[in-house]
Design goal:
Order of helices and strands: HHEEEEH
Strand content: 15-25%
Strand order of the largest sheet: 1-2
Radius of gyration: 24 Å
Largest sheet: 2 strands, antiparallel
Structural class: alpha+beta
Number of strands: 4
Number of domains: 2
Length: 91
């Protein structure tokens, strides 16, 4: 009777651990097929997918590839949104 009280929780813990391990392997395998090749390459090197720039209006950091751009005086300024771009004042 006491052996069952000890054995069942130990078996449950082992089973949960095994299931989490298997789900992790399946998740990694699936993510390799879903991620674009450039992102996988950058992730394998431990580098971010793109350079980050600071929005001068709100201070948010945004990826260069996803930013809203505005050229002021020959310099490209990166914004997180069109609203920040529109509120930016030069001068």
């Amino acid at each position: 009777m006491i052996a069952r009280l000890i054995l069942y929780p130990i078996l449950a813990i082992l089973l949960i651990t095994l299931l989490r391990y298997l789900i992790g392997i399946i998740g990694k395998t699936f993510s390799e097929f879903v991620l674009p090749p450039r992102t996988k390459e950058a992730a394998s090197r431990g580098q971010p997918a793109g350079e980050l720039k600071r929005d001068p209006v709100c201070g948010t950091y945004v990826a260069v590839t996803a930013s809203v751009k505005k050229t002021v005086g020959g310099e490209v300024i990166h914004f997180c949104s069109a609203a920040c771009r529109d509120t930016y004042k030069t001068g």
